[in-house]
Amino acid sequence: MPSKKETDAVDAHVGQRIRFRRIMLGHSQEALAKALNLTFQQVQKYEKGVNRIGASRLFAIASFLRVPVGFFFEDMPGEIQMPEVSELEPINIDFMTSKEAVKLCQAFSRIEDQNVRTNLIQMTSAIAGEADHAGVTGRA
User: Fold this and answer.
1) How many CB atoms lie within 10 A of CB 52?
2) Rounded to an integer, what distance in angstroms lies between the CA atom of residue 14 and that of residue 69?
3) Which residues contact 121 (CB under 8 A, 6 or more apart)?
4) I want to staple 40 with a disulfide (CB 3.0 to 4.6 A). Which of 1, 12, 29, 115 is the partner?
5) Mind giving me the DSSP string for 15-63?
6) pLDDT at 138
7) Do residues 120 and 111 touch, judged by C-beta distance below 8 A?
8) What is the rounded CA–CA span in Å between residue 65 and residue 35?
9) Is residue 123 helix, strand or coil?
10) How far apart are CA 122 and CA 135, in angstroms?
């Protein structure tokens, strides 16, 4: 007989936070289920962490419970380790979606010579005042 699927610690934590907020607002599982067009059994599975919640569903739950999505990830237990932030973060989303960034990426992608790409990255990093990026491959 196959073993019962183990609950993921993050899914369990998110489920607990959903249950906590739902109860704090005085909503039943049925009310949350109705708002999400689900059965209350599905809400039970979310709250127990048995079933994972997709991004759009989590957004809908956050909207119904009037909290930001990040609320569900607050106060994570110590055994749940957050990944280390890469050296490239934080990413300036406003810039990345600007016309200048799009044009820059389009032009960069047309450069076929790998050495030119690498040199361009190194030059741009130097202008920006960053440390030497000699190990950058420059692949788009």
Assistant:
1) 14
2) 10
3) 133, 136, 138
4) 29
5) HHHHHHHHHHTT--HHHHHHHHT--HHHHHHHHHTSS---HHHHHHHHH
6) 43
7) yes
8) 10
9) helix
10) 9
Q: Give the count of alpha carbons within 13 A of 114, CB side only.
A: 4
Q: In angstroms, rounded to a whole number, what is the distance separating the alpha carbons of residues 134 and 125? A: 10
Which amino acid is residue 62, in one-letter code? A
∠ CA 47-55-88, rounded to 5°: 120
pTM comes to 0.60
43 and 32 in contact (C-beta within 8 Å)? yes
- What is the per-residue pLDDT for 87? 55
DSSP letters, 49-116, are TSS---HHHHHHHHHHHTS-GGGGGTT--TTSPPPPPPTTPSP-HHHHTSHHHHHHHHHHHT---HHH
pLDDT digits (tens, 9 = 90+) for 56-99: 999 999 999 999 999 999 888 877 776 666 655 566 777 777 88
Task: Supply the pLDDT for residue 4.
Answer: 58
How long is the chain? 140
